[in-house]
Amino acid sequence: MIVGNGPIGALAAARIAGAAYVIRFNDCRSFPAARGRTDVVAVCNTGRPGLAMLSRPSWRRHPAIREASEIWSVRDPQKFAEMRGPLSASHPDLHDFCDDHTAGFAAFAAGTGKVHRILARSIHEHVDAQLAAFDPPPYIVPSSGAVVIAAALQWFPDHAVALAGFTHQGSDCHPFPAERRFVDALVAAGRLHRVSPAEDLSSAGIELAG
Q1: Within a 10 A sphere around the Cβ of 184, how many other Cβ atoms?
Q2: pLDDT tens digits for 36-79?
Q3: Quick one: CA torsion of 125, 159, 176, 128, rounded to 10 degrees?
Q4: Residue range 175-210, pLDDT digits in tens
Q5: Structural domain includes residue 208
Q6: Which residues span the domain enclosing 197?
Q7: I need a surface site. Which of 33, 46, 126, 157 has the fewest CB within 10 A?
Q8: What is the rounded CA–CA span in Å between residue 120 and residue 97?
Q9: Helices (DSSP H) in 112-195: which residue ranges?
Q10: 113 class by beta-carbon count within 10 Å (0-12 exposed, 13-18 middle, 19+ buried)
């Protein structure tokens, strides 16, 4: 199960509780609705989100963070170092977007007995290539969710992979409408299963209008 930070219904919570392997994101905001297990926390290891997590003792004490056996740094440091100059010119308001906090997450993992992995730039670039088929407007980077989905499908090709808590909404830095279509295509191809709020309601016997 790949668990986003969007709404989690009863069916999704049950699937997460019974999953063999669970990946969550950043500050694990959906954890109260779906406690279950946590094997991996995938973090945005650059910019303000990375700095905020490492600066908060409450993040380090979070039960999902404490339980996880792995921390995945989603953004390849070298790729983001190469992005800094062009991004400073095109988006001066994002002056700290490429600031690298990977070392901090590696140190946290080492100090708490966790494995630390950096997702290779090839995964990021694979997602860029896949999103191009859906004609996204100009964007800065794919979301952490899209990159982790691609990594999970690459690393666990023989396992069923399901999603919950993904709304495909948020920062304009990410091409969320194209990412939704990307995920829909993977679901249609049988490579992913999406446990959506609509499925949650349907499973409870509630008929949806429209």
Answers
A1: 14
A2: 899 999 999 999 999 999 999 999 999 999 999 999 999 999 99
A3: 10
A4: 999 999 999 999 999 999 998 655 543 333 323 222
A5: no
A6: 2-203
A7: 157
A8: 18
A9: 121-132, 144-155, 176-188
A10: exposed
Q: What is the pLDDT of residue 11?
A: 87
Q: What is the pLDDT of residues 79-130, one digit of tens each?
A: 999 999 999 999 999 999 999 999 999 999 999 999 999 999 999 999 999 9
| Burial track 57-84 (b if 16+ CB lie within 10 A, e otherwise) | eebeebebbebbeebbbbbbbebbeebb
Is 113 domain-assigned? yes
Cβ(117)–Cβ(73) below 8 Å = yes
Give φ, ψ of 52 to 5 degrees.
-65, -45
d(CA 87, CA 72): 24
Residue 210 falls inside a structural domain: no
User: 26 in helix, strand or coil?
Assistant: coil
**Tokens for 26?**
């950043």
Domain count, the chain: 1
Q: For the chain, what is the mean pLDDT?
A: 91
Output the CA angle 68-23-1, nearest 5 degrees.
130
* SS3 of 49-115: HHHHHHHCHHHHHCHHHHHCCEEEECCCHHHHHHHHHHHHHHCHHHCCCCCECHHHHHHHHHHCCCE
